[in-house]
Amino acid sequence: MLSAERLSGKPYGNLGYCAATLRALPIAYGVVPSLLLMQEPTKSTVLFVCMGNCVRSQMAEAIARHIASDVIAAESAGVQPLGFIDPTAKKVLESRGISIDGQFSKGLHSHKLSKPDLIVNMSGLPGKSLFHHEQLFEDWRVSDPFGDDVETHARVCDDIHSRIHGLAERLRASSAAGAARAPEENDLARS
Prior knowledge:
Helix content is 47%, strand content 11%. The chain has helices at residues 4-8, 15-29, 34-37, 56-67, 87-95, 127-130, 150-190, and strands at residues 44-50, 72-78, 118-121, 137-139. A four-stranded parallel sheet has the order 2-1-3-4, with helices on one face. The radius of gyration is 22 Å and the shape is globular.
């Protein structure tokens, strides 16, 4: 029986050494260990964009970090950033236990942003007018609650939450489909 102690010579094993050994098993023995099939989903960097990076995109970034951090590395920016996060948006998120710690208002060309795998555009402007043709983007029609009451902010927050949940499910399914192809690749490697 293959054990951590037997692989490393230490009780409970050296996990780094074990992982490397398990990765080598398909080649050495022509098998795919179940640990390899249970890989974490791949994270996609998603940039959420609205006009001022004050309400909608800030909500989206916080919600994505809260409910989909396994598949989304969330960031946000504004077409014309206002330089602050709306206090009503903060209040709605905090009432739901969603943190905005570390978030701040910034523009699309901020040096602090990573290169996104996907841009979610909630600015109201067509994405094709804002982004390069090689960038993958989705236009989401989400109303702007800036200046409105708490209830309006809460409705918009619900809408964004629902959309991010759907996006996360699509990303998880895409990641699972990629992982399901791994055994086929291993089968090819054996022949």
